[in-house]
Amino acid sequence: MACGPSSSASAPIRGSSSSSPRPTSPLARPCTPGGSGYCKYGWSKYAAPSGRCATFLEFGNIESPMYARLRHFLSTIYTRMQVKPSTQPIIVVLPLCHSDDTESARASRKQYKDTLYSVLFDMNVPAVCAVDQAVLALYAAKRTSGIVVNIGFNATSIVPIFQGRVMHEIGVETVGQGALKLTGFLKELMQQRNITFESLYTVRTIKEKLCYVAADYEAEKRKDTQASCEVDGEGWFTLSEERFKTAEILFQPQIGGVRAMGLHKAVSLCMDHCYNSEVFGDDNWYKTVVLSGGSSCLPGLSERLEKELRELLPAHISEGIRVIPPPFGTDSAWFGAKMISNVSTFTEAWCIKKKQFRQKTRRNGPSFVNVWML
């Protein structure tokens, strides 16, 4: 959950005091509760998310029905924010349905979406808005068209978006590695040097503090890149070539023993598909690439990706390419939700209400999907 339109009557939802003014802005969520990383929640009035928590996958017994787990998860968020579900609309982010998904995977996402709507409306939420995380990241960069490269927890998605709509007909490219793979590779490199650490969390912290993307991998290996950082409770850690070798698997997956397409090749393939689609007269809409996801904040990533794309693509496609770092860091999607939820027509233009959902569910059956909201 994340945010919604703010008003002068809004107040922070903090502490246990029951005398706090009741917020009048809707909730929003720039990260899906069904994701594999973590969830952020808060109000659009504030400058950052109010809090973070585990996703619904970590709530309840794995064998419990999805409805029960989602209900537990959402109830926990509302309790932490000290707000009644019936008072505010909510923005939620749903998993992107990739073009190469199996039928069972697509059916699972549809079931998840239907269940999420059912839970929220059963909790008397007045209106729900569902937006893809990639679209929110694009909005955060103040764009409505472009390609979003979302480096997620387990995978990376390359999503073409035109005027706020995911172009499924062009194709969403996926690379089977994400933040977890980067952290795991750094762990292996540290173990090879007999560097001891307490947990994977320690390795992730070191990755965030010391790692970066080399502009030229071979040239970087000839430099002195040693640097150190401190991890609370564990002391100091020193890395050298591990600092840039970790992120290099995004471009050269084979050095990490990964069988996957390099990030630059996946993005160039998406751009080539956009160019060849000839759906629109203006072929520049896809030349803006926006990075999103925690690992996309690694220093040097945007410059390296832009360089690789210019070298890989023909001039008529590469000319004018611009790769933009996450505009608000790890919270970019949250800020995208904040932006749309502050639009004056938010509830009417972006949301679906309980009555509409029930009517369409009866009309289309339990697999009802609001394509227009994806």
Write the layout of secondary structure elements.
Elements: E1 27-28, E2 38-43, E3 51-54, H1 66-81, E4 90-92, H2 103-122, E5 127-130, H3 133-140, E6 146-151, E7 156-162, E8 165-166, E9 173-175, H4 179-192, H5 200-210, H6 217-220, E10 227-231, E11 235-239, H7 242-248, H8 263-277, E12 288-292, H9 301-312, H10 315-318, E13 322-324, H11 332-341, H12 346-350, E14 352-353, H13 354-364
Parallel strand pairs: 1-4, 4-5, 6-12, 12-13
Antiparallel strand pairs: 1-2, 2-3, 5-14, 6-7, 7-8, 7-9, 10-11
Helix pairs in contact: 1-2, 3-11, 4-5, 4-7, 8-9
InterPro entries: Actin (IPR004000), ATPase_NBD (IPR043129)
Protein name: Actin-related protein 8
Family: Belongs to the actin family.
Describe this structure in words.
It is a single chain. The protein has 374 residues and is α/β, with parallel strands linked by helices. The protein has 3 domains: 28-132 and 333-363, Nucleotidyltransferase, domain 5 (2-Layer Sandwich); 140-176 and 259-331, ATPase, nucleotide binding domain (Nucleotidyltransferase, domain 5), CATH 3.30.420; 179-256, Alpha-Beta Complex (Actin, Chain A, domain 4). 37% of the residues lie in helices and 15% in strands. It contains 13 helices and 14 strands. The chain has helices spanning 66-81, 103-122, 133-140, 179-192, 200-210, 217-220, 242-248, 263-277, 301-312, 315-318, 332-341, 346-350, 354-364; strands at 27-28, 38-43, 51-54, 90-92, 127-130, 146-151, 156-162, 165-166, 173-175, 227-231, 235-239, 288-292, 322-324, 352-353. The strands form 3 sheets. Strands 3-2-1-4-5-14 form a 6-stranded mixed β-sheet, sandwiched between helices. Strands 6, 7, 8, 9, 12 and 13 form a 6-stranded mixed β-sheet that branches. A hairpin with a 2-residue loop joins β7 and β8 (165-166). The protein is globular. The two termini are 17 Å apart. The model is unreliable at 2-36 and 367-374 (pLDDT under 50).
